[in-house]
Design goal:
This protein has six helices and nine strands, in the order βββαββαβαββααβα. The protein is an alpha/beta fold and 199 residues long. The strands form two sheets. The chain has a seven-stranded mixed sheet with strand order 5-4-1-6-8-7-9, sandwiched between helices. A two-stranded antiparallel ribbon has the order 2-3. The protein is globular, with a radius of gyration of 15 Å. The chain starts with 5 loop residues before the first strand and ends in a 5-residue tail after the last helix. The model has no long low-confidence stretch (mean pLDDT 87).
């Protein structure tokens, strides 16, 4: 358990248009994506919630936090996550998208350590553009007004927040796999069996 009070927030409110059904309830290995995400966050957080405005979010041992303004993309989910963290007296929201199934708890330790060392907002590094994954990151509650301002200006992508606040990139040494469709689910299953991308 981290020494800082972090609220674990699994972002699971996406429309899943390419998959055609709620990806949070899909299984990789023996676990649903939502269970994999909550399990990754639990060792590092005082509490874990599910951020979703879907009418039928996956059931589990967590509280569901609705988006403050639905259909505003990942940035809208972060706004709800930060509001919930602030209301609960937490220092920050540890945000993890539900569709990153190869991320497990031990791999997140460097992210937590960098945040606790005073780096401010932090996110997992990755190859590509951008060279960070803003939906695997820790955001202090002080970022709340910035998120709201960006949303008011029409922003929807989480990278806008990370770039605006000058977040720190932390290399977790993971091969990222984002699940959007059936092919991605199969790739995740194969990677899990082979141990690829896992700590």
């Amino acid at each position: 358990m981290t020494g800082t009070s972090l609220l674990g927030t699994v972002l699971a409110g996406g429309a899943s248009r390419r998959l055609g059904r709620d990806k949070a309830a899909e299984r990789v290995g023996t676990q649903r994506l939502v269970d994999r995400a909550t399990s990754a966050l639990q060792p590092h957080c005082r509490d874990v919630v599910l951020v979703s405005s879907r009418p039928d979010p996956p059931a589990g041992d967590w509280r569901v936090v609705p988006d403050l303004r639905p259909s505003c993309g990942p940035l809208g989910g972060i706004e709800a996550a930060l509001a919930a963290a602030s209301a609960g007296g937490h220092a920050a929201a540890f945000v993890l998208a539900v569709d990153l199934p190869l991320i497990e708890a031990p791999a997140l330790l460097p992210l937590v350590a960098r945040f606790e060392a005073g780096a401010g907002p932090v996110a997992a590094g990755r190859e590509g553009d951008p060279d960070f994954q803003p939906l695997c990151g820790i955001y202090p509650v002080e970022c709340g007004p910035t998120v709201t301002r960006l949303l008011d200006q029409g922003a929807r992508a989480a990278r806008a927040l990370f770039e605006t606040v000058g977040g720190a990139r932390v290399d977790l040494g993971l091969a990222e796999l984002n699940v959007n469709d059936e092919a991605d689910l199969l790739r995740a299953e194969i990677a899990l069996r082979k141990g690829a991308g896992l700590p």
